[in-house]
């Protein structure tokens, strides 16, 4: 019960937030720009930004829209 009470107090103060994004908005835009120029693969971007490949895919999906990201995954499949 102490946890819920503490969460209620934090929520009332506006301090309760979810998990923070791994990439800032600026980094997300840069990642999309780098991907759209075609010289970087998903794996390259993941390594450059120190995130996982699924994080890169999720970021692209949010920035480009879900349909574009789905096409992107299918295009990169061997």
UniProtKB/TrEMBL annotation:
Q: Where is this region: Disordered?
A: 1-22
Q: Which Pfam families match?
A: HTH_7
**Residues of the Resolvase/invertase-type recombinase catalytic domain:** 1-14
InterPro entries to which the protein is assigned, alphabetical: Resolv_N, Resolvase_HTH_dom
Q: Name one GO molecular function term.
A: DNA binding
The name this protein carries in UniProt is: DNA invertase
Please tell me the species this chain comes from.
Pseudomonas savastanoi pv. glycinea
């Amino acid at each position: 019960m102490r946890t819920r009470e503490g969460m209620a107090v934090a929520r009332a103060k506006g301090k309760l937030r979810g998990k923070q994004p791994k990439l800032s908005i600026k980094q997300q835009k840069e990642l999309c720009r780098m991907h759209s120029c075609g010289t970087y693969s998903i794996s390259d971007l993941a390594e450059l930004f120190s995130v996982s490949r699924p994080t890169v895919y999720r970021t692209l999906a949010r920035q480009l829209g879900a349909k574009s990201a789905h096409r992107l995954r299918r295009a990169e499949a061997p």
